[in-house]
Amino acid sequence: MDLKKxxxxxxxxxxxxxxxxxxxxxxxxxxxDFAVVRDQLNLNLKKGINELSVTDITAHLEPDSVILHDPKxxxxxxxxxxxxxxxxxxxxxxxxxxxxxxxxxxASEDKVIKGKIIRSGYVPHQSGMQRYxxxxxxxxxxxxxxxxxxxxxxxxxxxxxPGLPLFPSLxxxxxxxxxxxxxxxxxxxxxxxxxxxYITGGMSWKADYSMLxxxxxxxxxxxxxxxIDNQSGKTFDNARIKLMAGDVSKIQPDQDRYDYSGMMYARxxxxxxxxxxxxxxxxxxxxxxxxxxxxxDRETKQVEFLRxxxxxSQRLYVYDGAKIDHRQYRGYxxxxxxxxxxxxxxxxxxxxxxxxxxxxxxxxLGIPLPRGVVRFYRRDDDGQLEFTGENIIDHTPKxxxxxxxxxxxxxxxxxxxRIDYQIDTAxxxxxxxxxxxxxxxxxxxxxxxxxxxxxxxxxxxxxxEKSDDFVKTDSQTVEFRVQVPAGQxxxxxxxxxxxx
Length: 500
What we know:
27% of the residues are buried. The chain is 3% helix and 52% strand. It folds into 4 domains: 3-88 and 174-200, Sandwich (Immunoglobulin-like); 91-166, no CATH class; 201-299, no CATH class; 311-499, no CATH class. The longest helix has 7 residues, at 91-97. The radius of gyration is 31 Å and the shape is elongated. It is mostly beta strands.
Protein backbone atom coordinates (compact mmCIF):
# COMPACT_ATOMS: atom_id res chain seq x y z
CA MET A 1 0.00 0.00 0.00
CA ASP A 2 1.42 3.39 -1.03
CA LEU A 3 1.07 6.23 1.41
CA LYS A 4 1.18 8.73 -1.50
CA LYS A 5 -2.46 8.09 -2.27
CA UNK A 6 -3.24 9.77 1.05
CA UNK A 7 -1.29 12.91 0.14
CA UNK A 8 -4.46 14.98 -0.13
CA UNK A 9 -4.81 14.51 3.65
CA UNK A 10 -1.17 14.85 4.66
CA UNK A 11 -0.46 17.76 2.31
CA UNK A 12 0.46 18.49 -1.29
CA UNK A 13 3.40 20.90 -1.07
CA UNK A 14 6.96 19.70 -1.67
CA UNK A 15 9.23 21.87 0.47
CA UNK A 16 12.82 22.83 -0.19
CA UNK A 17 14.16 23.08 3.35
CA UNK A 18 16.78 25.68 4.21
CA UNK A 19 18.67 25.43 7.47
CA UNK A 20 17.56 28.25 9.77
CA UNK A 21 19.26 28.89 13.12
CA UNK A 22 17.03 30.23 15.88
CA UNK A 23 18.37 32.52 18.60
CA UNK A 24 16.88 33.07 22.05
CA UNK A 25 13.10 33.59 21.66
CA UNK A 26 10.84 36.00 23.47
CA UNK A 27 7.10 35.91 23.96
CA UNK A 28 4.33 38.01 25.42
CA UNK A 29 1.47 35.96 26.85
CA UNK A 30 -1.95 37.59 27.11
CA UNK A 31 -4.63 36.68 29.63
CA UNK A 32 -7.03 35.88 26.77
CA ASP A 33 -5.43 32.59 25.69
CA PHE A 34 -2.98 33.77 23.06
CA ALA A 35 0.60 34.98 22.83
CA VAL A 36 2.91 36.95 20.57
CA VAL A 37 6.08 35.00 19.72
CA ARG A 38 9.30 36.65 18.52
CA ASP A 39 12.17 34.54 17.18
CA GLN A 40 15.51 35.57 15.68
CA LEU A 41 16.29 33.79 12.39
CA ASN A 42 19.85 33.66 11.13
CA LEU A 43 19.32 33.60 7.37
CA ASN A 44 21.73 33.41 4.46
CA LEU A 45 19.85 34.72 1.43
CA LYS A 46 20.73 35.39 -2.17
CA LYS A 47 19.53 38.49 -3.98
CA GLY A 48 16.15 37.90 -5.56
CA ILE A 49 13.98 34.82 -5.03
CA ASN A 50 14.65 32.44 -2.11
CA GLU A 51 12.76 29.41 -0.80
CA LEU A 52 13.09 28.36 2.82
CA SER A 53 11.16 26.59 5.54
CA VAL A 54 11.03 27.12 9.30
CA THR A 55 9.95 24.26 11.54
CA ASP A 56 10.50 25.60 15.07
CA ILE A 57 7.04 27.18 15.33
CA THR A 58 3.85 26.49 17.29
CA ALA A 59 1.01 24.20 16.27
CA HIS A 60 -1.53 27.01 16.80
CA LEU A 61 0.13 29.80 14.83
CA GLU A 62 -2.18 32.32 13.14
CA PRO A 63 -0.73 32.42 9.60
CA ASP A 64 -2.13 35.85 8.75
CA SER A 65 -0.31 37.37 11.75
CA VAL A 66 3.20 36.43 10.55
CA ILE A 67 5.72 39.28 10.25
CA LEU A 68 9.28 38.71 8.91
CA HIS A 69 11.58 41.71 8.77
CA ASP A 70 15.06 43.06 9.36
CA PRO A 71 14.91 44.67 12.82
CA LYS A 72 17.72 47.05 11.80
CA UNK A 73 15.81 48.18 8.71
CA UNK A 74 18.76 47.69 6.35
CA UNK A 75 17.35 44.86 4.22
CA UNK A 76 14.04 44.66 2.43
CA UNK A 77 12.28 41.28 2.73
CA UNK A 78 9.11 40.54 0.80
CA UNK A 79 7.10 37.37 1.39
CA UNK A 80 5.79 36.42 -2.06
CA UNK A 81 4.15 33.21 -0.86
CA UNK A 82 3.60 31.55 2.50
CA UNK A 83 2.35 28.04 3.27
CA UNK A 84 1.67 26.89 6.84
CA UNK A 85 1.18 23.24 7.77
CA UNK A 86 0.44 21.95 11.28
CA UNK A 87 -0.07 18.24 10.58
CA UNK A 88 3.27 16.66 11.53
CA UNK A 89 3.46 12.93 11.02
CA UNK A 90 2.93 10.72 14.05
CA UNK A 91 1.85 7.19 14.83
CA UNK A 92 -1.67 8.38 15.57
CA UNK A 93 -1.92 10.35 12.33
CA UNK A 94 -0.69 7.38 10.28
CA UNK A 95 -3.20 5.10 12.00
CA UNK A 96 -5.97 7.55 11.10
CA UNK A 97 -4.86 7.54 7.44
CA UNK A 98 -5.20 3.76 7.33
CA UNK A 99 -8.59 3.49 9.04
CA UNK A 100 -10.58 0.73 7.34
CA UNK A 101 -7.42 -0.89 5.98
CA UNK A 102 -5.11 -3.69 7.10
CA UNK A 103 -1.50 -3.21 8.18
CA UNK A 104 1.12 -5.29 9.97
CA UNK A 105 1.92 -5.16 13.69
CA UNK A 106 5.10 -6.38 15.42
CA ALA A 107 3.41 -8.41 18.17
CA SER A 108 6.68 -9.81 19.58
CA GLU A 109 10.31 -10.09 18.61
CA ASP A 110 9.66 -12.92 16.13
CA LYS A 111 5.94 -12.55 15.41
CA VAL A 112 4.23 -10.19 12.95
CA ILE A 113 0.45 -10.19 12.69
CA LYS A 114 -2.03 -8.37 10.49
CA GLY A 115 -4.83 -6.20 11.81
CA LYS A 116 -7.54 -3.99 10.33
CA ILE A 117 -7.78 -0.49 11.81
CA ILE A 118 -11.42 0.04 12.75
CA ARG A 119 -10.75 3.24 14.72
CA SER A 120 -7.40 4.97 15.10
CA GLY A 121 -8.18 7.01 18.24
CA TYR A 122 -6.13 9.84 16.77
CA VAL A 123 -6.72 13.30 18.31
CA PRO A 124 -5.03 16.25 16.55
CA HIS A 125 -3.23 18.65 18.87
CA GLN A 126 -5.74 21.44 18.18
CA SER A 127 -8.64 19.10 18.93
CA GLY A 128 -6.96 18.20 22.19
CA MET A 129 -7.55 21.69 23.47
CA GLN A 130 -10.66 22.30 25.54
CA ARG A 131 -11.84 25.64 26.91
CA TYR A 132 -12.64 25.87 30.61
CA UNK A 133 -13.85 29.38 31.39
CA UNK A 134 -11.26 31.63 29.79
CA UNK A 135 -8.52 29.11 29.36
CA UNK A 136 -7.65 26.24 27.11
CA UNK A 137 -6.38 23.16 28.89
CA UNK A 138 -5.25 19.86 27.49
CA UNK A 139 -7.99 17.23 27.56
CA UNK A 140 -7.24 14.01 29.32
CA UNK A 141 -8.04 11.81 26.37
CA UNK A 142 -6.74 8.66 27.99
CA UNK A 143 -9.95 8.76 30.02
CA UNK A 144 -12.17 9.22 26.97
CA UNK A 145 -13.29 5.96 25.35
CA UNK A 146 -13.23 7.35 21.81
CA UNK A 147 -9.47 7.96 22.02
CA UNK A 148 -8.76 4.22 22.20
CA UNK A 149 -7.85 2.55 18.91
CA UNK A 150 -9.89 -0.48 17.84
CA UNK A 151 -8.09 -3.13 15.77
CA UNK A 152 -9.68 -6.21 14.19
CA UNK A 153 -7.40 -9.26 14.39
CA UNK A 154 -8.60 -12.59 12.98
CA UNK A 155 -12.22 -11.43 13.07
CA UNK A 156 -12.12 -10.22 16.68
CA UNK A 157 -12.02 -6.63 17.91
CA UNK A 158 -9.29 -5.39 20.25
CA UNK A 159 -9.21 -2.15 22.19
CA UNK A 160 -5.62 -1.02 21.89
CA UNK A 161 -2.86 -1.91 19.47
CA PRO A 162 -1.86 -5.59 19.19
CA GLY A 163 1.75 -4.58 18.70
CA LEU A 164 4.00 -1.94 17.16
CA PRO A 165 2.38 -0.78 13.89
CA LEU A 166 4.54 -1.22 10.79
CA PHE A 167 3.78 1.40 8.12
CA PRO A 168 4.98 1.73 4.54
CA SER A 169 7.63 4.39 3.91
CA LEU A 170 6.59 8.05 4.04
CA UNK A 171 5.87 10.10 0.96
CA UNK A 172 8.08 13.07 0.10
CA UNK A 173 5.52 15.64 1.19
CA UNK A 174 5.09 14.55 4.81
CA UNK A 175 6.40 16.76 7.60
CA UNK A 176 7.75 15.99 11.05
CA UNK A 177 6.96 19.35 12.68
CA UNK A 178 4.60 22.28 12.07
CA UNK A 179 6.18 24.15 9.17
CA UNK A 180 6.10 27.52 7.42
CA UNK A 181 7.39 27.52 3.83
CA UNK A 182 8.22 30.87 2.25
CA UNK A 183 9.05 32.17 -1.18
CA UNK A 184 10.97 35.36 -0.36
CA UNK A 185 12.31 38.26 -2.36
CA UNK A 186 15.18 40.35 -1.00
CA UNK A 187 17.17 43.25 -2.41
CA UNK A 188 20.62 42.11 -1.20
CA UNK A 189 22.53 38.87 -0.77
CA UNK A 190 24.31 37.74 2.36
CA UNK A 191 23.60 36.85 5.96
CA UNK A 192 20.73 38.44 7.82
CA UNK A 193 19.60 38.30 11.44
CA UNK A 194 15.85 38.59 10.79
CA UNK A 195 13.01 38.70 13.30
CA UNK A 196 9.99 36.41 12.92
CA UNK A 197 6.93 37.34 14.98
CA TYR A 198 3.44 35.89 15.03
CA ILE A 199 0.35 35.38 17.18
CA THR A 200 -0.35 31.90 18.47
CA GLY A 201 -3.13 30.24 20.44
CA GLY A 202 -2.72 27.59 23.10
CA MET A 203 -0.97 29.77 25.69
CA SER A 204 -2.46 31.34 28.80
CA TRP A 205 -1.53 32.71 32.18
CA LYS A 206 -3.30 33.53 35.40
CA ALA A 207 -2.62 34.73 38.91
CA ASP A 208 -3.40 33.11 42.25
CA TYR A 209 -3.32 35.08 45.48
CA SER A 210 -3.01 33.49 48.91
CA MET A 211 -4.10 35.71 51.82
CA LEU A 212 -2.79 34.36 55.14
CA UNK A 213 -4.26 35.63 58.42
CA UNK A 214 -2.92 34.97 61.91
CA UNK A 215 -4.96 33.25 64.62
CA UNK A 216 -6.49 36.59 65.57
CA UNK A 217 -6.92 39.87 63.76
CA UNK A 218 -7.35 40.78 60.12
CA UNK A 219 -3.77 41.57 59.06
CA UNK A 220 -2.87 39.57 55.97
CA UNK A 221 0.35 38.21 54.52
CA UNK A 222 0.00 37.93 50.76
CA UNK A 223 1.78 35.40 48.55
CA UNK A 224 1.15 35.22 44.82
CA UNK A 225 1.95 32.82 42.00
CA UNK A 226 1.79 33.49 38.30
CA UNK A 227 0.91 30.33 36.35
CA ILE A 228 1.79 30.04 32.65
CA ASP A 229 0.23 27.20 30.66
CA ASN A 230 1.86 26.24 27.36
CA GLN A 231 -0.30 24.09 25.09
CA SER A 232 1.06 25.63 21.89
CA GLY A 233 2.88 22.60 20.48
CA LYS A 234 6.34 24.20 20.88
CA THR A 235 8.97 24.37 23.61
CA PHE A 236 10.54 27.78 24.24
CA ASP A 237 14.12 27.37 25.45
CA ASN A 238 15.60 30.07 27.66
CA ALA A 239 12.92 32.56 26.58
CA ARG A 240 12.31 36.12 27.66
CA ILE A 241 8.72 36.09 28.90
CA LYS A 242 6.32 38.99 29.31
CA LEU A 243 2.73 38.88 30.52
CA MET A 244 0.10 41.37 29.39
CA ALA A 245 -2.82 42.12 31.70
CA GLY A 246 -5.95 43.92 30.59
CA ASP A 247 -8.93 43.58 28.29
CA VAL A 248 -7.19 43.66 24.91
CA SER A 249 -9.60 43.40 21.97
CA LYS A 250 -8.93 40.12 20.17
CA ILE A 251 -11.40 38.71 17.64
CA GLN A 252 -12.17 35.06 18.34
CA PRO A 253 -13.64 32.68 15.73
CA ASP A 254 -16.73 32.04 17.87
CA GLN A 255 -16.84 35.58 19.31
CA ASP A 256 -16.56 34.26 22.86
CA ARG A 257 -15.21 36.47 25.58
CA TYR A 258 -12.74 35.04 28.04
CA ASP A 259 -13.29 35.67 31.68
CA TYR A 260 -10.63 34.11 33.77
CA SER A 261 -7.00 35.22 34.11
CA GLY A 262 -4.83 37.61 35.92
CA MET A 263 -1.52 38.48 37.44
CA MET A 264 -0.16 40.69 40.18
CA TYR A 265 3.06 42.65 40.29
CA ALA A 266 5.71 40.95 42.41
CA ARG A 267 7.22 42.77 45.32
CA UNK A 268 9.84 40.96 47.38
CA UNK A 269 11.84 42.00 50.39
CA UNK A 270 14.32 44.79 49.68
CA UNK A 271 17.24 42.38 49.91
CA UNK A 272 15.94 40.13 47.12
CA UNK A 273 15.34 41.03 43.45
CA UNK A 274 11.73 40.83 42.35
CA UNK A 275 11.15 37.93 39.92
CA UNK A 276 8.54 39.97 38.04
CA UNK A 277 8.62 43.66 37.15
CA UNK A 278 5.65 45.77 36.03
CA UNK A 279 5.00 48.85 33.91
CA UNK A 280 2.07 50.56 32.23
CA UNK A 281 1.84 49.87 28.50
CA UNK A 282 -0.81 51.54 26.33
CA UNK A 283 -4.02 51.10 28.36
CA UNK A 284 -2.84 47.85 29.95
CA UNK A 285 -0.12 46.60 32.27
CA UNK A 286 2.91 44.62 31.16
CA UNK A 287 4.76 42.28 33.52
CA UNK A 288 8.21 40.90 32.75
CA UNK A 289 9.88 37.84 34.24
CA UNK A 290 13.27 39.24 35.14
CA UNK A 291 15.23 36.17 34.09
CA UNK A 292 14.89 33.85 31.08
CA UNK A 293 12.89 30.65 31.55
CA UNK A 294 12.36 27.47 29.56
CA UNK A 295 8.69 26.77 28.88
CA UNK A 296 8.13 23.22 27.64
CA ASP A 297 5.18 22.25 25.47
CA ARG A 298 2.22 21.03 27.55
CA GLU A 299 3.89 22.36 30.68
CA THR A 300 2.48 24.50 33.44
CA LYS A 301 5.11 26.79 34.98
CA GLN A 302 4.65 28.74 38.19
CA VAL A 303 6.69 31.68 39.47
CA GLU A 304 6.26 33.35 42.85
CA PHE A 305 5.55 36.96 42.02
CA LEU A 306 4.31 38.61 45.20
CA ARG A 307 5.17 38.60 48.89
CA UNK A 308 3.67 41.34 51.05
CA UNK A 309 3.22 41.44 54.82
CA UNK A 310 0.82 43.12 57.24
CA UNK A 311 -1.80 44.12 54.70
CA UNK A 312 -4.71 45.62 56.66
CA SER A 313 -8.15 44.23 55.88
CA GLN A 314 -11.57 44.19 57.44
CA ARG A 315 -14.29 41.58 57.63
CA LEU A 316 -17.76 42.66 56.56
CA TYR A 317 -21.10 40.98 57.20
CA VAL A 318 -23.75 41.73 54.59
CA TYR A 319 -27.39 40.66 54.69
CA ASP A 320 -29.14 40.94 51.33
CA GLY A 321 -32.47 39.37 52.23
CA ALA A 322 -34.44 39.56 48.98
CA LYS A 323 -34.22 36.20 47.22
CA ILE A 324 -35.22 36.73 43.57
CA ASP A 325 -35.09 34.01 40.94
CA HIS A 326 -34.35 36.11 37.86
CA ARG A 327 -35.03 33.16 35.57
CA GLN A 328 -38.62 33.10 36.79
CA TYR A 329 -39.10 36.79 36.01
CA ARG A 330 -37.14 36.90 32.75
CA GLY A 331 -38.88 39.24 30.33
CA TYR A 332 -40.86 41.05 33.04
CA UNK A 333 -41.42 44.75 32.40
CA UNK A 334 -41.32 47.39 35.15
CA UNK A 335 -45.13 47.40 35.10
CA UNK A 336 -45.18 43.62 35.65
CA UNK A 337 -42.80 43.97 38.60
CA UNK A 338 -44.93 46.68 40.23
CA UNK A 339 -48.16 44.74 39.88
CA UNK A 340 -46.78 41.36 41.00
CA UNK A 341 -47.42 41.30 44.76
CA UNK A 342 -45.11 38.31 45.29
CA UNK A 343 -42.07 39.77 43.54
CA UNK A 344 -39.15 40.03 46.00
CA UNK A 345 -40.96 38.44 48.94
CA UNK A 346 -38.93 35.22 49.14
CA UNK A 347 -36.34 35.32 51.93
CA UNK A 348 -32.63 34.56 51.83
CA UNK A 349 -31.52 33.64 55.40
CA UNK A 350 -27.78 33.73 54.74
CA UNK A 351 -25.50 36.51 55.91
CA UNK A 352 -22.51 36.95 53.59
CA UNK A 353 -18.93 37.18 54.83
CA UNK A 354 -16.76 39.55 52.81
CA UNK A 355 -13.13 40.62 53.01
CA UNK A 356 -12.13 44.14 52.09
CA UNK A 357 -8.68 45.71 51.73
CA UNK A 358 -7.27 48.85 50.20
CA UNK A 359 -4.80 48.45 47.34
CA UNK A 360 -2.53 51.30 48.41
CA UNK A 361 1.13 51.84 49.22
CA UNK A 362 0.32 52.78 52.81
CA UNK A 363 -1.30 49.33 53.06
CA UNK A 364 1.87 47.65 51.68
CA LEU A 365 0.34 47.15 48.22
CA GLY A 366 -0.43 50.01 45.82
CA ILE A 367 0.15 48.01 42.65
CA PRO A 368 -2.04 47.07 39.66
CA LEU A 369 -3.88 43.86 40.52
CA PRO A 370 -5.02 42.05 37.38
CA ARG A 371 -7.83 39.55 37.54
CA GLY A 372 -7.19 36.36 39.49
CA VAL A 373 -8.32 33.94 42.17
CA VAL A 374 -7.89 35.07 45.79
CA ARG A 375 -7.80 32.39 48.48
CA PHE A 376 -8.05 33.17 52.18
CA TYR A 377 -6.50 31.15 55.01
CA ARG A 378 -6.37 31.59 58.79
CA ARG A 379 -3.97 29.98 61.21
CA ASP A 380 -5.65 27.82 63.87
CA ASP A 381 -4.51 27.75 67.51
CA ASP A 382 -2.58 24.54 66.70
CA GLY A 383 -0.50 26.48 64.16
CA GLN A 384 -2.06 24.97 61.05
CA LEU A 385 -3.51 27.01 58.21
CA GLU A 386 -7.19 26.43 57.42
CA PHE A 387 -8.89 27.47 54.18
CA THR A 388 -11.68 30.02 54.76
CA GLY A 389 -12.91 30.88 51.25
CA GLU A 390 -11.97 32.07 47.80
CA ASN A 391 -13.27 34.21 44.97
CA ILE A 392 -12.15 36.13 41.89
CA ILE A 393 -11.06 39.76 41.79
CA ASP A 394 -11.27 41.77 38.60
CA HIS A 395 -8.49 43.98 37.19
CA THR A 396 -7.99 46.50 40.00
CA PRO A 397 -5.88 49.68 39.69
CA LYS A 398 -3.82 50.88 42.60
CA UNK A 399 -5.52 52.97 45.31
CA UNK A 400 -8.83 51.17 44.76
CA UNK A 401 -10.64 49.04 47.35
CA UNK A 402 -11.00 45.29 46.84
CA UNK A 403 -14.05 43.53 48.29
CA UNK A 404 -14.31 39.74 48.04
CA UNK A 405 -17.16 37.40 49.03
CA UNK A 406 -15.70 34.41 50.93
CA UNK A 407 -18.77 32.49 52.16
CA UNK A 408 -21.75 32.60 54.51
CA UNK A 409 -21.57 33.22 58.25
CA UNK A 410 -22.49 30.17 60.37
CA UNK A 411 -23.68 32.02 63.48
CA UNK A 412 -25.44 34.96 61.81
CA UNK A 413 -28.95 34.58 60.43
CA UNK A 414 -31.27 36.96 58.59
CA UNK A 415 -35.04 37.00 58.16
CA UNK A 416 -36.96 39.33 55.87
CA UNK A 417 -40.72 39.65 55.39
CA ARG A 418 -43.04 42.15 53.82
CA ILE A 419 -45.59 43.64 56.21
CA ASP A 420 -47.51 45.96 53.89
CA TYR A 421 -48.23 46.39 50.17
CA GLN A 422 -50.64 48.92 48.66
CA ILE A 423 -50.88 50.04 45.04
CA ASP A 424 -53.08 52.65 43.32
CA THR A 425 -52.65 52.29 39.56
CA ALA A 426 -55.12 55.11 38.88
CA UNK A 427 -52.99 57.63 40.81
CA UNK A 428 -49.65 55.92 40.02
CA UNK A 429 -48.31 55.19 43.49
CA UNK A 430 -47.25 52.13 45.51
CA UNK A 431 -46.38 51.72 49.20
CA UNK A 432 -44.43 48.75 50.50
CA UNK A 433 -43.10 48.03 53.99
CA UNK A 434 -40.62 45.41 55.27
CA UNK A 435 -39.40 43.97 58.56
CA UNK A 436 -35.84 42.59 58.61
CA UNK A 437 -34.45 40.65 61.55
CA UNK A 438 -30.75 39.80 61.95
CA UNK A 439 -29.64 37.47 64.76
CA UNK A 440 -26.17 37.02 66.23
CA UNK A 441 -25.70 33.54 67.73
CA UNK A 442 -22.03 34.07 68.62
CA UNK A 443 -21.01 33.56 72.25
CA UNK A 444 -19.29 36.91 72.33
CA UNK A 445 -18.51 39.90 70.11
CA UNK A 446 -20.92 42.47 68.83
CA UNK A 447 -20.93 42.49 65.04
CA UNK A 448 -21.96 45.09 62.50
CA UNK A 449 -24.26 43.76 59.79
CA UNK A 450 -24.94 45.76 56.66
CA UNK A 451 -28.58 45.20 55.74
CA UNK A 452 -28.92 45.83 52.01
CA UNK A 453 -32.32 46.62 50.49
CA UNK A 454 -33.03 46.96 46.76
CA UNK A 455 -35.85 49.35 45.86
CA UNK A 456 -36.77 47.42 42.73
CA UNK A 457 -40.39 48.53 42.18
CA UNK A 458 -39.48 51.80 40.42
CA UNK A 459 -36.76 54.47 40.13
CA UNK A 460 -38.77 57.23 41.85
CA UNK A 461 -38.98 56.40 45.55
CA UNK A 462 -38.92 57.89 49.00
CA UNK A 463 -38.47 56.14 52.34
CA UNK A 464 -41.25 57.63 54.47
CA GLU A 465 -40.79 55.53 57.61
CA LYS A 466 -37.66 53.90 59.04
CA SER A 467 -36.38 52.42 62.29
CA ASP A 468 -32.70 53.17 61.59
CA ASP A 469 -30.62 55.51 59.49
CA PHE A 470 -29.54 54.29 56.08
CA VAL A 471 -26.92 55.04 53.43
CA LYS A 472 -27.94 55.36 49.77
CA THR A 473 -25.36 53.28 47.86
CA ASP A 474 -26.86 53.74 44.39
CA SER A 475 -30.06 54.99 42.74
CA GLN A 476 -32.11 51.99 43.89
CA THR A 477 -30.15 50.54 46.82
CA VAL A 478 -29.94 51.49 50.48
CA GLU A 479 -27.89 50.04 53.33
CA PHE A 480 -28.71 49.96 57.03
CA ARG A 481 -25.58 49.45 59.16
CA VAL A 482 -26.69 47.98 62.46
CA GLN A 483 -24.87 46.68 65.54
CA VAL A 484 -26.02 43.27 66.79
CA PRO A 485 -24.70 42.17 70.22
CA ALA A 486 -23.82 38.52 70.86
CA GLY A 487 -26.87 36.36 71.51
CA GLN A 488 -29.31 39.08 70.45
CA UNK A 489 -31.53 40.12 67.56
CA UNK A 490 -31.87 43.44 65.78
CA UNK A 491 -35.07 44.42 63.92
CA UNK A 492 -35.00 46.92 61.04
CA UNK A 493 -38.22 48.26 59.54
CA UNK A 494 -38.89 50.72 56.75
CA UNK A 495 -41.64 51.84 54.38
CA UNK A 496 -41.01 53.06 50.85
CA UNK A 497 -43.36 55.17 48.70
CA UNK A 498 -43.05 54.82 44.89
CA UNK A 499 -44.50 57.18 42.26
CA UNK A 500 -44.52 56.98 38.46
